[in-house]
Design brief:
Helix 3 (75-86) crosses helix 4 (98-107), helix 8 packs across helix 10 and helix 18 (384-407) packs parallel to helix 20. The radius of gyration is 30 Å and the shape is elongated. The chain has helices at 40-44, 48-56, 75-86, 98-107, 119-131, 135-144, 149-154, 157-170, 213-216, 221-233, 238-252, 254-259, 284-294, 301-317, 321-332, 340-343, 357-375, 384-407, 415-423, 434-445, and strands at residues 10-13, 16-19, 27-31, 34-38, 65-68, 192-195, 198-203. The longest helix has 24 residues, at 384-407. The chain has a five-stranded mixed beta sheet with strand order 1-2-4-3-5, covered by helices on one side. A two-stranded antiparallel sheet has the order 6-7. A hairpin with a 2-residue loop joins strand 3 and strand 4 (34-38). It is an alpha/beta fold. This is Phototropic-responsive NPH3 family protein. Residues 25-95 form the BTB domain. It is found in: Endomembrane system.
Length: 446
Amino acid sequence: MAPPGKLSGFHLQGHHWFSDSGLPSDITVSIDGVNFHLHKFPLVSRCGKIARTYEDSKNTYEKNLTVVLEEFPGGPETFLIVAKFCYGFRVELTAKNVVLVHCAAEYLEMTDEYEEGNLLTKSESFFHKNILRNWKDCILALQSSEPILSRAENLNLVDKCLNALSMMACTDPSLFGWPMMMYGSFQSPGGSILWNGINTGARIRTSESEWWFEDISYLSVRLFESLIKTMRSRGMRPESLAGAIMYYSRKHLPGLGRWQGGQGGKTRTVASFSLTPASATVDQRVLLESIEKLLPQKKGKSFCRFLLGLLRVASILNVDQACKESLERRIGMQLELATLDSLLIPAYADSDALYNTDCIENIVHHFVLTESNLTAFSPSSLDPQASSSSESLRKVAKLIDSYIGEIASDVNLKPEKLRALAQALPESSRSLHDGLYRAIDIYFKV
């Protein structure tokens, strides 16, 4: 071999990589149609897998050994890093390549059994000391694991990233003296202004509980789902989980974002300047069904509107019936918080009617069932729970009467549909019937 000082690395010719050592190659490593013309000693001394192949080939009379590596983690780009390491060149591990390199080192069995401080040990040490302590790098590492997700999961790299992110998001970031370089020279993770590394307590104008929403929205559906489940197991507040899910949904379901007026206020982001967007080829139907399963049991005006938006998009995407029924049930549990415009869901199926009245009727039935369960053990009208239930019934009755009045102008609305909606609520829910009279009057005129 030429002296190390004369080595300048490797060069590419077409689909072939060559060492700059000047010595003829005696081993060819082939990965995805790209050939590396290298030398046995640097590889055999560090790679258990190639060492065994070399031992098995000693009885052959071929001068040049060819090794084909099937399903090599990271492909030719990652193997080039491995080759440089084997030849003694300095390799730079980063958040974007450390998962790929670690999986490649495990694939090639580059353990300390062959050489102390081998690539498997170095990549593992870098991962624990640098990646798991840094929010941005954890996100980048997770993104880079997508092409080899199953292998990274088997090596617990994904779980370690998810746990680290969950810990950082679940804890008040202002309590930690985390490295400033993670969040900019003058900010702590929670947005406090730093002076010479000291937290002044002064806040940048941002919602502290939402600082991580934008960053995790760059993850794929599968990784996002895993992260939310990990956060839930760590005790993340349902309000924060719901906020993150709503943010992710609005970003990746265009129909939902357009209907609900976009993303709202811009959230401060930490890592997105160096992240790549989640795949644009995401199956939106799969995404919506996954999102519905992640949703916490929560009530609120904005959350109710969000659920109705999901139901609207679900009708367009024709998601499975179980998903639709679950959304209808969730909405029914808080129907008194809904607004008229959010109930006006178009009929996207083969229907002459303008609006999907069936799903609204289902929602009302779920509401009535929920209210019946709440008051089943509160027969006294003086009971506060019964009083609250009566107020909810009156609100929903007024809302549904307004809804019927809005859809009554549809010439294709069948009379049985109108009647079913009017009768879906118990008689006790209406002290006055002016709303129904108005709706019926509009219907007859049309």
